[in-house]
Specification:
- This protein is mainly alpha-helical.
- It has 3 helices and no strands.
- The protein is elongated and about 45 Å long.
Amino acid sequence: MSNSTQLLSRIGGILALNIFVGIGAYFVALQFNDGKLDSAEYGAIFLAMALPNLLIGGVLRLFRPDIGRYFLRTAAVWLLIGCGLIFTN
């Protein structure tokens, strides 16, 4: 496999994990808030999407630093979006 194909497959897998976690967090937030969500709840959903990335990326930094960086960069993006949504409410 070429480097670009490996990069796309790694990023695709990480984004798929984030999408599934985000869908689950969305439905849990929707259930507990009686179907009414505002920007703070959407920010919490993005923070929930960042949590698995932080855990997995932190562990992978010990064994596979090249893959762990992708998780941590993705977590940084979700944290920035989530905090932005929460604090602009």
